[in-house]
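Quick one, T. Sequence first:
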Amino acid sequence: MTSTADASSNHHSLRAELETLTTEAFRPELSQIDRLSTLEIAKIMNAEDATVPTAVATQLPRIAAAIDAVAERMSRGGRLIYAGAGTAGRLGVLDASECPPTFNTDPSEVVGLIAGGPSAMVTSVEGAEDSKELAEADLKQLSLTSDDTVVGVSASGRTPYAVGAVEHARARGALTIGLSCNAHSALAAAAEHGIEIVVGPELLTGSTRLKAGTAQKLVLNMLSTITMIRLGKTYGNLMVDVRASNEKLRARSRRIVALATGASDEEIEQALGATDGEVKNAILTILGGVDGPTAARLLEESDGHLRAALAASTG
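Structure tokens:
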């Protein structure tokens, strides 16, 4: 049991550590922000947000290198796994949950882990972020392989859950990425690919759901989207692997086939009917002049890359 003296010492040490972090810095020039008009506050916040893409731009070579490494492993059957606490964890879960409908991935291919489990998406789970052991336990349930990638996400770059996830994954031979918003972070140091988006102090002191959260969302967008482009989940800038799970997506599927082929509505309906509604296959039947089963075979032989399958169909 932790004594009062030990707890006081721990709090003092943590406070001293937080005071060294850019994301926790106090901005005296904003100390009277609550006395400004709503429009003035909105203008300040908007100007702050506008600095985030510039901060991301400084890390683009590191981001690109990480994406190429992820895509290489996923092409061999590996998974992309995000691990974080609080806002960072929620952003990882959000990105993972959007991959199946957007890219027709299996839910097990891109996974979001949040400290404290699914309930932490909507309710704070006290102490969960402080446990490296919890991260290790969560990852053990996934039976990591060397083809998997674990992305630790933490604004501070010190969150034990995120750091522990990366340390455990790296020890198991998985690819590791550390995404943080402070320079010289423990998370980046622990990972094979360290990405540090230094966005500076927040509008509200320490509220890293603001600029830091925006930066993390932008980078996670890049990690998943460009990886899927590299894996052949798109044709140009069209989402040809979209899963038509509702009326809007079914309409989008037909529009994608139309944009890719220029075919008539009748041809599109015939193609989708011959391919069980698979957009990529339908495009191949129209542009490659092949039937549904042949389209399926060519895509399988091309590892799902539509351009390669088209080349094979006309070669």
